[in-house]
Amino acid sequence: MERNLAHVAMFAALIAALGLVPAITLGFGVPISAQTLGVMLAGAVLGWKRGVAACLLFILLVALGLPLLAGGRGGLGVFMAPTTGFLLGWIPAAAVTGLFVEKSGIRHPGLAAGLGAVLGGVLVLYVFGIAGMALALKKSLAEATLLSAAFIPGDLLKAVVTGLLVQVLAQVRPQSIAWQRRDGAS
């Protein structure tokens, strides 16, 4: 139990630390940050339940006012911005990434993590992000989708990095990949 809590806290801290990487804010108010890499890694390494818990902990800390989002943002105001859909989308993104790596049957950890990150950390995240952006900016879904296209190359790169990092982690410290411990996949 303590180990699970420590892992959840560690990945919430990783997501926060990735917010220190300078973000690039686009003209419509949505920053490109490294924090989604942490979300992808949380699901890919911890599995869906603990990955979701790490994202929930992070979002709770932000809601309480800690300036943990890229650019030092925090507080309830961040939930009324064009980024709200993306921020809340971290929860299902981590869940789908984690579920994919746990259930896909792909025995290559890096490939499972990379594909899971594309599915959860890009496709699922964009469903929430685009919907939130459309509402906040009073745009159509098509217009918000077009605006979101600027994020795709960076997010696909983060999915590749997730796969590479999980593969290295699986080789040097296989016991740290939660879903591998349970089912014995290598």
UniProtKB/TrEMBL annotation:
It is a multi-pass membrane protein. Coiled coil: none annotated. The chain crosses the membrane at residues 6-30, 51-70, 76-101, 113-137, 149-172. Pfam families: BioY. It is found in: Cell membrane. Keywords: Cell membrane, Membrane, Transmembrane, Transmembrane helix, Transport. Gene3D superfamilies: 1.10.1760.20. Belongs to the BioY family. This is Biotin transporter. It comes from Paracoccus simplex. The lineage of its organism: Bacteria, Pseudomonadati, Pseudomonadota, Alphaproteobacteria, Rhodobacterales.
